Structure formats: C-alpha cells, structure tokens
Amino acid sequence: MGTATAQRSRLESVQALGLASFQRGALTVYFSRDRESRAEGVATLLADVATFYGVARGQGADTNVAVLDESDWEATFDLPYGLSAYRGDGAIVFLPADLEAGAIFRVLVDGLEASAPEVSSQVRAECGSLRGGARELADLVAVHELGHAYQRRHFGIGPPSQWFNELVAWYVAYEYLAARAPESLRKVVIVNRALAKSMRPTTPSLDEFERSVPTGREYARFQALFVARCHDVHRARGARFLGELAREFPRVATRDQERLENAEILRRLERLSLGFEEWARRVGDLPGGE
Ligand SMILES: [Zn+2]
Fold first, then answer.
1. Could you tell me the distance, in angstroms and rounded to a whole number, from the CA of residue 12 to the centre of ligand 1?
2. CA–CA dist 201, 183 (Å, integer)
3. Which residues make up the environment of ion ligand 1, defined by Cβ < 5 Å?
4. How far is the CA of 163 from the centre of ligand 1 (A)?
5. Separation of CA 118 and ligand 1 centre (Å)
C-alpha cells in the first residue's frame, strides 16, 4: 500500500477519497462532506480570477482545487492542516475548509498580536479585529495559490528560484485584486505591512531563503515582504509586469534549466523595475528600520 500511495499523484489521492466535486470553468473543485458552501465560495472567487486572466478550460492551465476538512487533508497531503499550497503533481491547490483551524490563519493571528500598536490599530480599524485581518489575508491566499498554478502554464514564466516563484504568485494575486477587489487589496496590504513590521528576521537574505526556505512566522514575514514589493512594482509596471517577466524568465523544458543565481535574477528584475536590488539587500533588516 505504501508504494502504491507514493506513486499516486496528489490529485489521484484526493480522487480516491470519493469526494463530491463540480466543474467551474477551468477549475475542478473537490470538497469534503458538508463543505459545499465553503467550496462554492472558493470556486466563485477563483473562477473570477481565471476569467480575469482569460484562462479557459482545456487550454493547458486546468486546475484542481481541494477544499478539505482536517481528516481528508491528513489523508492526502503532507503539510500541516491549513498550510495552503499548490502542487504541480496533479495540478492541484489544497485549501482548508476550516480556515480558522488552519496553520496560516494561526500564524497570522500570532504575528498580528505581536505587532506594534501603531500598525495593529490600523488592522483593527480596517478589518474590525486582528482575527478579521488574519481571516482576510488567509482567505486570499487561495488567489496566491492559483498564481502558482498559472505561473508556468498560463503566463509562461519559468521561475528561476523559490522566492521568485512566491513573489510572482503574489503579483498574480495583486494584479487581480487591484482590478477586481481594491477594498480587499487595501486590507491585504495593511495586514502584511503590520506583519513585516512585527517579526524579527531570522533569515538574513534571499540566498539564505533559497538554501533553506523558512517556516512559520519567518515564512509569513517573507510573504509580507513579497506583497510589499508587489505593491511598489505594481505602481510602476501595473499589468504589463507579468508579460515582461515571461519574456525575461521564459518557461523552458525543465525547471533545472530555468534556475538562475540570485544576483542574475535581481539584475534582470532591476532592469524591469527599479528597486529590486535595494529591496533584496534589506530583506534581513530589523522591522521599523532599527
Ligand atoms: Zn506560495
């Protein structure tokens, strides 16, 4: 059984649970028992992202989405419950049916509770409460995951590193939210700003991030830095940036051939949009510029 399970794709493992599913455009959504309304909400959001980017069914970017309760998640996925992720193996996005029981939500709440009063009060003002802010961001992580799903297959970008992959998934989400849900985007930016200012860095550089991708709060801090970078780049490049990335970092046959050293990645990014090299030098700085 162990061998058979290992050879199954993630999608096949989910399908083997015998869950209900439905089709929504280029998305196939599987959901745990009694979680149809949550799955509908996720599908409505993600189908709008697909429409926004012109992703149609059968054009090479079809994506599966699994909205799972804790027991279905544990049976099919290797990450802690609620640590949403995309896996190319089966082209599937894993999302928690119970957002507030999930790892991302809890890390965000912890981070926001530790943030300085001047930034946490802003989150409370915008989102009602710190938990409300955490929920807003954790919910929209689904759009970021679809960004991963579309990065190579739809946009034709071959991510040359892991941090670049994360940054671009946020850019896909940012561009969508800026056009379709600016209110939500404003909250996401404020919550991430609070997180970036509340967490003391333990990973000093992008090179170190690449050697050993951090977990927990440090991972959340990096995600916040990526959102902040998207915020600045979007003001300068807007919707053009994704096409520019595809020209500068084209998808090729294998991921190994796409990989580049950070210095080269940053040199090319700097050419597209000013400020990347300076931003990269500061990812290990203490919050608040201490
Ligand atoms: Zn990601």
1. 22
2. 29
3. 166, 169
4. 9
5. 28
- Within 10 angstroms of residue 82's Cβ, the number of other Cβ atoms is 24
Domain positions in the chain are 12-99, 102-289
CATH topology of domain 12-99: Zincin-like (3.30.2010)
In the beta sheet, which residues pair with residue 93?
A: 65, 86
pTM for this model (two decimals): 0.95
Tens digits of residue pLDDT in 266-279:
999 999 999 999 99
Q: Which tokens belong to 155? A: 């946009």
What is the Å distance from ligand 1's center to 85 Cα? 7
58-103 pLDDT per residue, tens: 999 999 999 999 999 999 999 999 999 999 999 999 999 999 999 9
What is the residue-wise DSSP string for 207-261?
HHHHHS---HHHHHHHHHHHHHHHHHHHHHHTTHHHHHHHHHSB--S-HHHH---
Neighbouring CB atoms inside 10 A of 15's CB total 19
Q: What distance in Å separates the CA atoms of residue 227 and residue 189, rounded to the nearest whole number? A: 7
- Neighbour-count burial of 259, counting CB atoms closer than 10 A to its CB (0-12 exposed, 13-18 middle, 19+ buried): middle
